[in-house]
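Data availability (excerpt). All sequences and predicted token strings are deposited with the supplementary files. A representative entry, Thiopeptide-type bacteriocin biosynthesis protein, is shown inline so that the format can be inspected without opening the archive.
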Amino acid sequence: MSMEHPYQAAGFYLLRAPLLPAHTFFQVISVSSPEALLQLAEHPVIRHALYVASPSLFERLELIRSGQTTKPQKMQRAFSRLLRYLIRLSTRPTPFGLFAGIAFDTFADQSNVRLAASHRHKTHTRPDMYWLYALLSFIETLPVNQEVIPYQANQTLYFAGSRLVVPYPDIYEQSQRASLSVRATSVVKHLHQLARTPRLLSELVQKMQEAFPQASLQQIEKLLQSAVHNHILISTLQLPLSQMYPASIVLERLQALPSSRLRDIANAFEKILQAMADIDREGPGCSLDKLYSLSDKQHRLLPRQISPTMQVDMRLQLHTKQLHQDIAQAAAKTAELLTRLSLYQDGYPHLREYHRKFAERYGHYTEVPLLELLSPEKGLDAPATYMEPPGILGSAGASTPESTIRRDALLCELAATALRERKREVRLTEALVEQLQLSATPSYPPSQEVYLQVHASSYEALDYGQWRAVLAPNTGSLSGGRTFGRFMHLYEHDDLARLQQYIQRQEDEHPDILFAELSYRPLYPRSANVVVHPTLFSYEITVNTMPSVPPERVIQLDDLVVGIRQGRFYLRSLRLKKEVIVCHTSMLNIRKAPNVCRFLIEVSEDRSALPVPFDWGAAEHLPFLPRLVYEDKIVLRPARWLLRRESIPTDPAASFFEALQAWRAAWDVPRYTYLVNGDQRLLLDLENALTVAELRTELQKTDPTQSIQLEEMYPDFEHLWLQDEEKHTYVSEIVVPVSLRSHAGTSTQQRVTQEGIPSPPAIISARERNILPGNDWVYLHLYLPLSQQNEFIADTLFAFVHSLRQSAFIDRWFYVRYRDPEQHLRLRLHACNADVQGRLLQYALEWSGSLAEKEILEQVTLNTYSREIERYGGPLAIEQIERFFTLDSDLCRHLLRSASLKHIRLDPLLLAVSSLDFLFDTWGFTFDDRLQWLRTTVPEAFQEEFRTHQKELSELLVPWRLIHPMREPIQQAVLTYQAEIHQVAHSIRTLESRQQLWGNQKDIAGSLVHMHINRLLGIDSTDEQKVLAFWRLALESIAARPS
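Structure token line:
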């Protein structure tokens, strides 16, 4: 395989495999009766696995074993569940209790990895996190806690007007999802201030009494009880999830508290942990008496009915190690393909719309406090599709890109051809990949994880290249190392060191960025089982839990601000004055996290395309899709069939079996297939009555309008490479982290980092930024068709502005073209003094209203003017910039008028280039300054199109062999405003020399260039790119002249 791809694989991988070898599947499905199935489950290892996975099923099976009567329907359901669990034990590699485990291994020049016997694998038993949280909640209700357990303010709180808002109350027992709020009285505000650092409840009571002597003790205690219940105050007893062994931390804290009642609880809890350690020493198949004893201890300490009470992970012991490094290269190539073929080249679709709303409300250089932005009371609320809690922007996400019509047609043709020719496989060539790409230059994520199954018959086949890499059902993650976090407690020292070194390299490569681990308490407590791990990054952000790093390395939510650069969001710490990338070393679905957590992760990933499983597009709903293989080596999708209820009669069972075989023959469906339902997969033998009965049951439950999905078993039984000491083969998958090579195409993240983020020195308040109607600025949206805008600006609008100037009503004005999504002009008028503010507003409304009555304008709205202070140099520069906007609006109006009267006869793109060059020459940027700025900000593009204009444009800017006739009228138009341009430029340079300018002069000039193109040409981004590219190429051409 070619080595010329942007990613390189890490030197290690995670092996995942089920507890039992693949041949166990045949033993399971060959049983002749339910009793025989029950007998098969008598094996100690299987009983141990079932007890941990489903105590309720285990109990039901024990009743059946003992001969106690139970209803036939319940028995049938129990046997069906048992069958599915037994099939999973040998066919599904996803880690789950004792059903499947993991091993950490490395790549080498030869494959030799073999599993040890199943009884030698290592288990790690710990309290289930739901049970542990319930224990902590029970302890917090004890009267003694007021004297011994410190509490502090929940850091997600924020004030909105007269209310204190708790956006994520996290009250487990009430399934609380919606935010809640309380009146922000002086008492509540004082409590919030006191609790910014941990304090005992008794201390809080005392200090509140001192501050509010008129309040009774009962009133203050009631207030604190309510604050604890509503999660305004959270206990420091709440365990940090960023620890290797959280249960041990809880034990240490309980033992340290000065209370005999809590010491009794600590002693009982310690015995529970000792019992778990004893079970782990015995390993898979341990004594059931020990499991019963452990459960009894847990129920006596916490009588509540919580099941399961324990959680188990398993480390697979390897007899020998190492896998051939060519597999690692295949993972790197797969990561590249997933990015190139993704439908989401612009990142998360819902963030693109949120970005538009952000820019509309705040501007492009504004930084907004994170909690304020996500607040429905003060900000935009959470983006669309965010549901924890649901926001005002709704749950509907953006649709897939419109540019997929050609892609869909090609894929439908591939699928139809395979169906016509009865082929299960389609080969995807490099030429086809290029045709399917939505972007010729995809922006690659800095790192990924790739989940692969390897289709190979033996270790020799692996070493001689006789294999295929098959994308696993879960194709991977957008951040290298994410899958590895959950299992850190299972790694050996050297393995952990390799993972830490891999993560550390990310930080070392970006010293100007802070990497912070996100640790949050999931909305569903049992989900915490898969997020517990020590932080791998230098900083930590916590939500509804406690940090594990020193206070100076904790980044508080109210310290974070959000901004946008180059069409993407970024985060910054005000205290540390650096950009922050938030990482989450867990595979827990971030879409189900509290909104603030999801936003932190998605914004940190909003720097590249989104690698997602290959999407067949419009062909996705066809009844058959072939296996899709890239260059005969990488399987992007196995073959798949859809089966509807109406396709096969489900009654009686014998007819169903016969009809199924006929359907298989008609559609060329293999014998061994997976029944796929979301992330659940069950291997079926379609010639076996036992598993066909499961398929029939599933089909009977399916809505007649829906289909069930069957996917070929690939790798099949003949191509399972992983073996144990006895040469039994196993279903398996590997997880490979990959990172961008240093010479690879620069990702969006790297571009932003290299250019830096000129962050504002301070946060501008809404009062400073916003100018309401009736004050010194009047701000109107004037809606009219795009085709009429130039004429309107040149004549109607200018006539009105001229009359206002003549009457001494305004001293500044400017316009901007915009779309929201309707095309319109944004007009801003500044009153000369306070005496004319009211009349200016009245005249503006009368003028625009009369135009609407005449149907010249379609709609008029009056708005608040939010000044983009940060973008244009800060508070001391904004008025000077508004003066520039005034002269630029006058200039663009003049050029549009001259063009309409044919006084200037020039292609609009060339007019924009020449006016820009003359404008910034007058500002004081030399030829070399302008060329250097363009070289650093504008890519070399549109070269072919430029060649047709090269000579004309070069002569227009700097005459060499002839003087272009249009040069003088354009240059004279600019020079009309020479004095004003010099004045503004001088003011900006003075502020910069005094270090009072936010950002720098060149950054501001870049924004002024954008606004000049907007006023002259409109909002077409392609036109803007062409203008900038032509400008650069013209100056390059001039610079290349012999003299």
